[in-house]
């Protein structure tokens, strides 16, 4: 049955064969959140004495701790899953606790999917009830489909029905996830309206319905840069509480994230680590932040923002790229010239408008800055 | 009364320790006063204001208002005690005034406070002495401190002071395990419903403060000791008069322990002895919620006056009411917000509060809920909510019977010293800015205009047009007094108010040009302290304005003000920086802005290019000092020679071999050098409109930045058969029709004439017919005299010897130089320019260029055709 096929990921919290799960997780290229952090979840559950909403494995407070990290009374350290404002996580968890669907918005690379996965893992112990939104997502993916062999052999019945992840979540009181909601065609999106407002999914073919059990909820993610792809209807939008995941708050935090990720990536690519890399990383992060925020870090000069998103993820790729350049074609040390081309590519997405933005930035900000002479020259070289 | 055990020690007065501007405190004070019914009320505030209390009974005195104390002769030195509707002091005052209970202020008199501030120079902060604008709005010592009125300095002092001062609220909150003192206070005091015992909250708070003060003493607020001594004296006097049971005291909770403290009258008096004193005046002034908010200059330290006001007024269910209000505001702004949204927002806010362990949803929770539910996670509508509701647009009112605002006094004083009487009759005033009094008058009028007090309107000067003259039309209308009163919110002196107004205008300005205009007005009104803000805004606007046209239009005005400021000796460093930045942005953006324009837009762009060119020339002059300094200056070799941009083309440096290229690299660092680079790019650009290209080529040529062959190449490129005839003619227009003397140029610089003539001769007959109407458009704009002269020149041809004799009136502009006569002029020119020996060489190379060699024949050949047509001005007939 489809159910078993879709449920490849095991559910450590609700299913007895945790051993199986461990083995699966060990082999998986990327284990599910509930498997990777099973120990933390168990420790939290054991010490969580606060009230839990129906069918939640943890109290909202514990879910927030799971995401933000902390130390439990018995000394168990919970690693932070999300580095960012506490407020965001609190609002997100509270939204789920009040039965409202949660919409996570943000530019690409702000950990929307990551947060949604961990929320589902912490709340329901299962992050696999997932609908991936694409331009071709059919209604069946959100409601239900049919097993046609069954249907033809035995006629319409619940046995012939192939439930969607959302339908299963409703029936079991779990958290369903919809990724990239705005990529789903508008008419398909709107099937969610009944589910979210009436909390029921009618099956007219059988004259039946599936009513959501307490504990059911839905987390959707959407990219707010891709405006106009398939904007949510206001009827649907009204059913969601929206939380915007911001880009990292401080330059330090971002440098930290970038260098950590670059380190991980570099190791997987067997690149030698660059000793002076941190300066260039800081520079890349600074450039990205300034262009993104439209103001220099000292807050004294405004600059135009280019059309690209310049997310942390892109900064990571620029630095990784530069490291590869330095390792294979340079002297192994990350130099301004190694990142200049990458930055140019990330910034100048629209050849006309962005080039002006970039040149203005170069002339007005970079040229004047102490210790940025090399970088300025390198940029001029690739920009010319 | 028997229940009044609250903060009453047996036999002592009722001490109501509050948090200034705390709505919970205000409510508690109201309840406590109602229960205790004192016969006299003492409030923390300047005793000089006792006489103003009765005004509180009038309906026209509507909070937010502030008690304003200022030194009589010096309105700029002032202090404010802002009161909002939800301030406990205000509530207590109203309560007392309505019941006929006498109110007395008991703090240190403003006469001392302001005198204390005066020392050194009346402005310099003294360690530990001066009261800064507060940060914590706790019941702490900063609470009812007067706000120093001098702005700008507060921020700095605040940070300096904070280090030593104890924030009692923060200590208490920290003890209670809160990281945010605000939230702690809200949770324990503001959000508490009315308890059974109206005195209990005060008692609890007083105990806490007592414990704090035992540990921290005066906590770095050493001046508080003086104030508290003064308060004790007042309390004692009141107790003697009305008996201990009849006295109620409303003061910052921080002071309660000190007021309980037993100190002898003698000791208190000794403390207060010999305090400096000045003569002060007090009045009520209208205040706004925005000014109560911490973000603005005079901040009373309340982040959210609107929210506090709401808490104070809401009879019950504050969160539900608040969110309904928010929904109403968003609906008015055309956002779709339904009741369902409000319901969900309330649920979210309540649950958030529960999760954060707070007894009731506070501002943070409600705003989080509004963002997530009503604003779709966006901060933009949220900012609106913050601005309109959390801070709020409330404006206080003051009855007419209140004493005059200090701004009026300052104005009167200025009018007296400058001998400018406000008269209803219109009259004209001529000012000579070289005289001190006239300059001061001009400043005053400009400042008043900035404040919207249109007493004087600038009029066109009669007679002299010198920049040192100004003509004003003066007329004092009665309603101007009202305007003065209104402008009182901006400050206490004309200069201060105008500065504040200019800053506010700059922030609120719509377009870049508005800000540049404002900058100019600031210079005229001589408001140097407003300039940084204006410049800031200007730089920001310039950075974000994507329309190069706007930038190009703003630049000349800016450079003008720069030069003007220079003349007046104002420090224009910031202005220059902004102008340079603006120019830089123009340089970057101009090429793409000049591409793909239609004829009209191209014409406008040409004007802008001209304007920028002029501005850059000036700017270069200001930024890069004269030729002598340039050699030794920081710009070093990058500085172009002695102002080639301003040199008349006839005196232009000749095109020495390789000179053009050499200069462009050398001048790369200078602003004029970079501008030339831009012009060069424009002149050679493919997609640039013809008229702009032509113009750029011409500007470059005038600068001597083009080798002669280069100009010819550009021209032939532009006029070649491959290009559209319209474009070619536009190029000619751009190249030749610049400014007033386009034609004169052709007359005087026969190099140009040669180029045009050369092209025209080379044009085939059919093409000639095609371009004729277009050329005519250019040449018909010349004055008839110029046209005729050009025609004559062409007809005559650039021959050598004989030409001179043929043209009687034009001998100086003969095709070939008369070296003897030219040399004869040199000594005089050298004398005029202050040059010595070296000038001879310069002159030689500069004047003796051998142009026209070998071209004479061609020009002569074309002479007949061109010349005749030009003379008649009837090209069509020829065709």
Describe the structure.
- The complex is a heterodimer of chains A (384) and B (879).
- With 384 residues, chain A is α/β, with parallel strands linked by helices.
- Chain A folds into 2 domains: 243 residues, 3-Layer(aba) Sandwich (Rossmann fold), CATH 3.40.50.300; 133 residues.
- Chain A has 18 helices and 11 strands.
- In chain A, the strands form 4 sheets. A 5-stranded parallel β-sheet of chain A has the order 4-7-10-3-11.
- In chain A, helix 5 runs antiparallel to helix 6, helix 5 packs across helix 7 and helix 17 packs antiparallel against helix 18.
- Chain A is elongated.
- The N and C termini of chain A lie far apart (60 Å).
- With 879 residues, chain B is an alpha/beta fold.
- Among the domains of chain B are: 279 residues, no CATH class; 79 residues; 103 residues, no CATH class.
- Helix content of chain B is 56%, strand content 7%.
- Chain B is built from 40 helices and 11 strands.
- In chain B, the strands form 3 sheets. Chain B has a 4-stranded parallel β-sheet, sandwiched between helices.
- In chain B, a hairpin with a 2-residue loop joins strand 3 and strand 4.
- The N terminus and C terminus of chain B are likely disordered.
- Chains A and B meet through helix 5, helix 6, strand 11 and helix 17 of A and helix 14, helix 15, helix 22 and helix 24 of B.
- Chain B: Pfam families: DUF5682.
- Chain B: InterPro entries: DUF5682, LolB.
Question: What does the secondary structure layout of this molecule look like, with pairings?
Answer:
The complex is a heterodimer of chains A (384) and B (879).
Chain A: H1 2-6, H2 18-27, H3 33-36, H4 38-47, H5 60-68, E1 70-71, E2 77-78, H6 86-97, E3 101-106, H7 112-124, E4 130-132, E5 144-146, H8 148-154, E6 161-163, H9 165-172, E7 175-179, H10 186-189, H11 191-197, E8 200-203, E9 208-211, E10 217-223, H12 234-237, E11 240-244, H13 251-268, H14 277-293, H15 312-328, H16 336-347, H17 353-366, H18 373-383
Parallel strand pairs in A: 3-10, 3-11, 4-7, 7-10
Antiparallel strand pairs in A: 1-2, 5-6, 8-9
Chain B: E1 14-18, H1 23-36, E2 40-43, E3 65-71, E4 74-83, H2 88-99, E5 103-105, H3 110-118, E6 147-148, H4 153-162, H5 168-175, H6 181-190, H7 200-216, H8 223-242, E7 247-252, H9 256-260, H10 265-272, E8 280-286, H11 289-292, H12 305-313, H13 318-332, H14 339-355, H15 363-374, H16 379-392, H17 406-417, E9 427-432, H18 436-450, E10 456-459, E11 469-474, H19 479-487, H20 494-508, H21 512-524, H22 531-544, H23 548-568, H24 573-593, H25 599-623, H26 627-632, H27 659-666, H28 671-684, H29 690-702, H30 708-719, H31 725-736, H32 742-748, H33 750-762, H34 765-780, H35 784-796, H36 801-806, H37 819-833, H38 839-847, H39 856-872, H40 875-878
Parallel strand pairs in B: 1-7, 2-5, 2-7
Antiparallel strand pairs in B: 3-4, 3-8, 4-6, 9-11, 10-11
Helix pairs in contact in B: 1-2, 1-12, 5-6, 8-10, 12-16, 13-14, 13-16, 14-15, 18-20, 20-21, 20-22, 21-22, 21-23, 22-24, 23-24, 23-25, 24-25, 24-28, 25-29, 27-28, 28-29, 29-30, 29-31, 31-34, 32-33, 32-35, 33-39, 35-39, 37-38
Biased composition (Low complexity) (chain B): 648-657
Region (Disordered) (chain B): 113-165, 626-669, 842-864
InterPro entries (chain B): DUF5682, LolB
């Amino acid at each position: 049955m489809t159910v078993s096929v879709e449920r490849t990921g095991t559910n450590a919290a609700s299913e007895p064969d945790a051993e199986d799960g461990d083995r699966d997780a060990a082999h998986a290229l990327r284990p599910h959140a509930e498997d990777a952090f099973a120990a933390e979840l168990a420790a939290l559950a054991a010490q969580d004495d606060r009230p839990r909403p129906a069918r939640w494995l943890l109290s909202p407070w514990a879910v927030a701790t799971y995401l933000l990290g902390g130390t439990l009374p018995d000394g168990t350290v919970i690693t932070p899953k999300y580095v960012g404002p506490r407020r965001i996580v609190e609002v997100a968890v509270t939204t789920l606790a009040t039965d409202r669907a949660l919409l996570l918005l943000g530019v690409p690379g702000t950990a929307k999917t990551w947060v949604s996965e961990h929320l589902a893992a912490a709340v329901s112990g299962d992050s696999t009830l997932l609908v991936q939104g694409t331009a071709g997502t059919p209604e069946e993916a959100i409601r239900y489909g049919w097993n046609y062999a069954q249907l033809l052999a035995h006629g319409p019945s619940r046995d012939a029905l192939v439930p969607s992840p959302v339908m299963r979540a409703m029936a079991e009181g779990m958290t369903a996830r919809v990724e990239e909601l705005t990529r789903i065609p508008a008419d398909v999106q709107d099937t969610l309206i009944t589910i979210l407002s009436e909390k029921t999914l009618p099956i007219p073919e059988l004259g039946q319905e599936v009513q959501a059990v307490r504990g059911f909820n839905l987390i959707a993610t959407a990219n707010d840069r891709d405006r106009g792809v398939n904007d949510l209807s206001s009827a649907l939008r009204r059913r969601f509480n929206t939380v915007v995941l911001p880009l990292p708050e401080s330059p330090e935090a971002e440098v930290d994230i970038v260098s950590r990720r670059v380190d991980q990536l570099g190791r997987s690519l067997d690149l030698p680590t660059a000793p002076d890399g941190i300066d260039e990383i800081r520079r890349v992060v600074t450039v990205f932040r300034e262009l993104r925020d439209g103001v220099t870090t000292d807050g004294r000069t405004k600059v135009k923002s280019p059309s690209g998103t310049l997310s942390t993820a892109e900064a990571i790729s620029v630095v990784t790229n530069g490291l590869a350049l330095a390792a294979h074609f340079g002297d192994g040390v990350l130099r301004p010239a190694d990142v200049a081309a990458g930055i140019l590519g990330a910034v100048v997405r629209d050849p006309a408008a962005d080039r002006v933005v970039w040149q203005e930035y170069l002339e007005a900000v970079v040229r004047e800055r102490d210790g940025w002479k090399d970088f300025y020259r390198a940029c001029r070289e690739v920009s010319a | 009364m028997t229940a009044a055990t609250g903060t009453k020690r047996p036999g002592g007065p009722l001490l109501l320790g509050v948090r200034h501007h705390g709505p919970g405190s205000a409510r508690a004070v109201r309840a406590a006063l109602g229960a205790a019914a004192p016969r006299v009320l003492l409030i923390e505030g300047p005793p000089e204001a006792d006489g103003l209390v009765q005004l509180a009974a009038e309906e026209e005195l509507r909070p937010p208002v502030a008690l304003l104390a200022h030194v009589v002769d010096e309105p700029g030195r002032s202090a404010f005690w802002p009161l909002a509707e939800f301030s406990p002091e205000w509530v207590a005052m109203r309560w007392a005034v309505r019941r006929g209970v006498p109110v007395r202020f008991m703090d240190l008199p403003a006469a001392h406070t302001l005198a204390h501030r005066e020392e050194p120079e009346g402005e310099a902060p003294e360690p530990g002495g001066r009261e800064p604008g507060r940060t914590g709005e706790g019941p702490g010592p900063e609470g009812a401190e007067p706000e120093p009125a001098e702005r700008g300095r507060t921020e700095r002092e605040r940070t300096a002071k904070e280090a030593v001062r104890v924030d009692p609220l923060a200590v208490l909150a920290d003890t209670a395990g809160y990281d945010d003192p605000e939230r702690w206070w809200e949770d324990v005091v503001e959000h508490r419903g009315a308890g059974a015992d109206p005195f209990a909250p005060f008692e609890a708070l007083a105990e806490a403060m007592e414990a704090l003060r035992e540990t921290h003493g005066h906590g770095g607020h050493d001046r508080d000791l003086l104030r508290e001594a003064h308060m004790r004296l007042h309390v004692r006097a009141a107790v003697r008069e009305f008996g201990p049971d009849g006295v109620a005291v409303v003061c910052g909770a921080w002071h309660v322990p000190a007021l309980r403290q037993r100190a002898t009258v003698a000791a208190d008096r000794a403390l207060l002895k010999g305090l400096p004193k000045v003569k002060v005046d007090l009045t009520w002034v209208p205040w706004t919620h925005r000014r109560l908010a911490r973000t603005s200059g005079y901040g009373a330290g309340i982040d959210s006056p609107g929210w506090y006001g709401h808490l104070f007024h809401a009879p019950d269910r504050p969160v539900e009411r608040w969110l309904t209000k928010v929904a109403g505001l968003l609906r008015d702004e055309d956002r779709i917000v339904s009741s369902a949204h409000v319901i969900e927002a309330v649920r979210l806010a309540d649950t958030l509060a529960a999760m954060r362990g707070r007894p009731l949803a506070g501002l943070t929770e409600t705003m989080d809920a509004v963002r997530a539910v009503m604003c779709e996670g966006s901060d933009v509508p949220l900012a609106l909510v913050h601005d309109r509701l959390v801070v709020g647009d409330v404006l206080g009112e003051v009855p007419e019977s209140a004493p005059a605002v200090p701004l009026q006094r300052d104005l009167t004083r200025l009018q007296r010293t400058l001998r400018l009487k406000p008269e209803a009759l219109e009259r004209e005033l001529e000012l000579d800015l070289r005289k001190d009094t006239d300059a001061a008058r001009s400043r005053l009028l400009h400042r008043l205009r900035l404040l919207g007090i249109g007493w004087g309107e600038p009029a066109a000067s009669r007679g002299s047009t010198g920049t040192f003259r100004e003509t004003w039309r003066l007329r004092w209308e009665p309603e101007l007094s009202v305007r003065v009163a209104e402008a009182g919110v901006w400050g206490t002196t004309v200069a201060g108010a105008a500065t504040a107004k200019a800053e506010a205008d700059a922030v609120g300005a719509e377009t870049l040009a508005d800000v540049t205009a404002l900058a100019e007005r600031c210079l005229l009104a001589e408001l140097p302290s407003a300039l940084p803000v204006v410049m800031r805004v200007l730089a920001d606007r310039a950075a974000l304005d994507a329309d190069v046209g706007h930038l190009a239009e703003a630049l000349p005005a800016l450079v003008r003000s720069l030069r003007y400021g220079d003349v007046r000796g104002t420090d224009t460093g910031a202005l220059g920086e902004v102008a340079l930045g603006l120019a830089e942005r123009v340089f970057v953006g101009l090429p793409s802005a000049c591409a793909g324009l239609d004829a009209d837009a191209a014409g406008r762009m040409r004007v802008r290019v001209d304007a920028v060119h002029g501005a850059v020339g000036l700017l270069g002059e200001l930024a890069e000092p004269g030729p002598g300094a340039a050699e030794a200056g920081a710009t070093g070799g990058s500085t172009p020679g002695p102002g080639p941009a301003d040199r008349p083309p006839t005196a232009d440096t000749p095109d020495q071999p390789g000179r053009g290229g050499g200069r462009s690299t050398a001048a790369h660092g200078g602003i004029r050098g970079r501008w030339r680079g831009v012009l060069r790019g424009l002149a050679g650009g493919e997609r640039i409109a013809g008229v702009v290209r032509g113009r750029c080529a011409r500007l470059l040529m005038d600068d001597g930045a083009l080798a002669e062959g280069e100009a010819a190449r550009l021209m032939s490129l532009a006029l070649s058969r491959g290009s559209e005839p319209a474009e070619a003619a536009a190029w000619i227009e751009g190249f030749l029709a610049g400014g007033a003397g386009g034609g004169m140029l052709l007359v005087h610089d026969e190099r140009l004439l040669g180029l045009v003539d050369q092209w025209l001769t080379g044009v085939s007959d059919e093409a000639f017919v095609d371009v004729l109407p277009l050329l005519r458009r250019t040449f018909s704009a010349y004055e008839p005299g110029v046209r005729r002269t050009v025609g004559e020149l062409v007809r005559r041809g650039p021959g050598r010897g004989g030409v001179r004799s043929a043209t009687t009136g034009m001998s100086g502009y003969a095709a070939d130089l008369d070296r003897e006569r030219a040399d004869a002029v040199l000594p005089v020119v050298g004398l005029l320019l202050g040059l010595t020996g070296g000038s001879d060489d310069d002159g030689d190379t500069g004047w003796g260029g051998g142009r026209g060699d070998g071209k004479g024949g061609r020009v002569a050949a074309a002479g007949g055709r061109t010349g005749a047509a030009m003379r008649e001005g009837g090209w069509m007939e020829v065709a």
